[in-house]
Amino acid sequence: MLKDREPYLIRNIGGILSLVLFIKIAGYFSITDIKIITQIFKVILRVGMTLTVILILRKLKSYGCVNILQLKNSMGLILYVLYLILGFASFAWSTDPKYSALQWFMTFESFVFVYYFFVVVYTVNIFYPHKKINLVQLFVKSIFPIILIFIIGSFVLPDFFYREMRGGEEIRLGGWIMNPNELGMLASMLGALAYVYLIDVKGKQKIFPILAMIGALVILLLTSSRSSLIGFLLIIGLLIFKSENKKLKIALFAMMIIVAPLAINMIIFKDGGGVEEVMSMTGRLPFWTALLNEGIIKEPFFGYGFMRINYTDYFQGLNTYPGKMTHNTFMQVLMNLGFVGLFIALFQVIFTIRNFFINKGNDYGHFFIAMVIPVMINSFTEFGIFGDANYGILFWQFLIFLFLFEKRTFLTSIEKAWMSKFNHNVLS
Description:
The chain is mostly helical and 428 residues long. The protein has helices at 8-11, 13-26, 35-62, 75-89, 97-127, 135-156, 158-161, 180-199, 207-223, 226-242, 246-268, 274-279, 284-295, 329-358, 365-379, 391-401, 413-419; strands spanning 69-71, 162-165, 170-173, 405-407. The longest helix has 31 residues, at 97-127.
């Protein structure tokens, strides 16, 4: 098929998928404090983008792009499906079945989105190799506009984009749109992916990823997210260590030396909290202790139901603050689905990371590192990969599917005939 005769969808597929992912991520933000409007906004954007990728795939098939993909056997994927099945079954014993169902269907919906998104990406890469989609660049182009909106908003509408915390003693970027730590995780991921983007391009192409890295650092400072800053520094350190570019190593190492004092001050001495506050995980450790001593012992095997941590909406220990979520994704799944659910979740994570080590030589090895560290660090302090619906779950599902698609070895004569209309390399 000649390039100048290609359909509009194919000519602009990279930009279209970047826009789809941008809108999908934006669907996790709150545009107002009016609950019903926020819920409608989120449903339209999230479900709308899932339907969009399904329609894109159908359109590709109408061009003759037959489905020649299959999924490799993966314990990580099997265990995640088992986690979803257990979560669905928990509606029967949930302390609030409606809330459990809402959270479950949002998690399942993003799972469906990621599956079809990958099918579209791999189908395009196979049938239209000159339009090959690079996931690193696609994610940077999708996330950077969100970061840019928050930076501009912090100047134009500070009352809307900032949130007062600790009785007004602390002001953090995020407002009521998004939890500052979740926004920090997004910035940390953008910075790391922009670095991977940077080392893969030359000349003027480096300008965009450099701007993305600067934007990510600005957000990290404005959100004052300790965990996100730690994650970003850790990823950059690992990627610098793996880099063969000596000049880039020296430049980034020098940058880290400059940033280190600021990072230490932000992590340890933020707001005068000191080492004691850091060691208590800003009050989280007493809450987790109470959950173990006073909460899970009442429902140890299967928990309180999907995304429920108590018989009521909040859990409060004898000597802790009340909380609706646990601020730790593994503690969350323990309370939701008991020790059975925790066992499944832990092994699911182990096998997903194991899959990375099996495929670490893959082109997307750095992509995995840049995404998994911010998501996992966030999981120890916030919603995380097994918590209430958030884009951390979405990103984790991307990592589950990342290395699992491959071309089928057996093709029918009809499939071969269709593919012969494209590049002969498809058959190789």
